């Protein structure tokens, strides 16, 4: 027997807004795919023109996400939609949007600082990148559930927490390998800086997932 509380979709009467929120969350997913490709190119070729192309695409999609979020905010206020939950929705959209900003900021750092990453650390950077992207994608699923099927939010939040822990584990292992290597200390610290900033994606996803859990409880009350 299903004892879950039936909570209707937030957008049962606002299909246009539903489509915009879907597009906004799609942008977060696309940002992760661009980020993965960009890091792969950088590890293989360095600051190659292919990397610059992915950075340009990230910049464009980040701007599209910002504009879309602002449009959603205006609609929520002008049309006084979901007034009881408007603050929570606005906060959620803003914090999810910040994930895209972190993706872009990471690629900006790679573009400007161009860290010299020894081949022996490529696998670690690839693993960390894969896990943080999976963590963010789990957050996207949790966000969609908040809007459409609140009873599944908890399952997706648990996945966010799991992948955040995995990211921490991989980040710690990679940093240990870097600092036990023979490269000079300045270079070690430079690589550590990039490891920590990639890992920040998972940390931020965890923070937003915690917020979604609270918002979901409030919707059920």
Could you characterize what this model shows?
- This protein has 221 residues and is mainly α.
- The chain has one domain (15-220): Up-down Bundle (Methane Monooxygenase Hydroxylase, Chain G, domain 1).
- The chain has six helices and no strands.
- Helix 1 (15-45) runs antiparallel to helix 2 and helix 4 (122-148) packs parallel to helix 6 (185-220).
- It starts with 14 loop residues before the first helix and ends with a helix.
Write a concise keyword list for the protein shown above:
single chain, mainly alpha, Methane Monooxygenase Hydroxylase, Chain G, domain 1, 6 helices, disordered N terminus
Query: Mind telling me the C-alpha Rg?
Result: 19 Å
Which CATH architecture would you pick?
A: Up-down Bundle
Strand composition percent: under 5%
Q: What share of residues is helical?
A: over 70%
Number of strands: 0
Could you name the CATH homologous superfamily? Phosphate transport system protein phou homolog 2, domain 2
Largest sheet: none
Broad shape:
globular
Could you state the order of secondary-structure elements as H and E?
HHHHHH
Class based on secondary structure composition and strand pairing? mainly alpha
* Spans of at least 5 consecutive residues with low confidence: 1-8
Just give the CATH class: Mainly Alpha
Q: DSSP helix count?
A: 6
Distance between the termini: 21 Å
